[in-house]
Write a structure and sequence with these properties.
This protein is 41% helix and 18% strand. It is of the alpha/beta class. Helix 2 links the parallel strand 2 and strand 3. The C terminus is likely disordered.
């Protein structure tokens, strides 16, 4: 049985937090391969795209190009077009000899029943809930309640991962770009150079890496 991970997102832009999360996901669950899948049109936050799908795909591929793990950046959702639904992506990457694990942040984890065909999500993949920060007691309790409900209602296979705290967000990168502030501490150097060269997100910082 091949252990295959799926990590989806807008990646607008891909940043150091994304790379760290992907690496930890791969290592903690002893994955044999990981597919990073930029969305074409995310159903929950279409306003967060900020640049073309082609640019987001190119930046994500650059960010993972030299990763020593077996990581593939897939254009499946972008080539499919339309709204990107996770259950379709999981169906695409499923196979009889493969166990899929889908990486899911806390905000997404708490809303899984609202996604398109949640029953198919849990049938197709194990859900790896990743904590990127220390959760409040209230949020932690909500996560545990949801996990129990998902197991009871959908027969879900849930695993919880705790990563080192990371406060980086794509919104933070885009806002710094708009203010002409350095972003070198937030994104891989090659992604910084791509943003500057293509003048993405308004007015990208033109200075050196910080």
């Amino acid at each position: 049985m091949v252990e295959r991970g799926i990590y989806g997102g807008t990646f607008s832009p891909v940043h150091n937090g994304h790379v760290r999360a992907a690496n930890a996901f791969y290592d903690l669950l002893s994955l044999e391969e990981l597919f990073v899948v930029p969305t074409f049109l995310p159903p929950h936050k279409p306003e967060a795209v900020g640049c073309s799908a082609e640019d987001r795909l190119a930046m994500t591929r650059l960010a993972f190009a030299d990763n020593p793990r077996r990581v593939t950046v897939s254009d499946y959702e972008i080539l499919s077009g339309g709204t990107s639904y996770t259950y379709k992506t999981l169906m695409h990457f499923s196979a009889p000899d493969v166990r899929l694990t889908f990486l899911c942040g806390t905000d997404m984890f708490l809303t899984l029943p609202q996604w398109k065909h949640p029953d198919k999500l849990f049938a197709l993949a194990r859900i790896a809930h990743v904590r990127r920060t220390v959760l409040s007691e209230e949020t932690e309790e909500a996560v545990l309640r949801c996990a129990e409900a998902y197991r009871r209602i959908y027969g879900g296979d849930i695993v919880h991962l705790q990563l080192p705290p990371c406060e980086i967000s794509a919104t933070m990168v885009r806002e710094r770009c708009a203010r002409r502030e350095p972003i070198g501490d937030l994104v891989p150097p090659i992604v910084h150079d791509y943003i500057a060269a293509h003048r993405l997100y308004g007015n990208p910082a033109a200075g050196g890496l910080s």
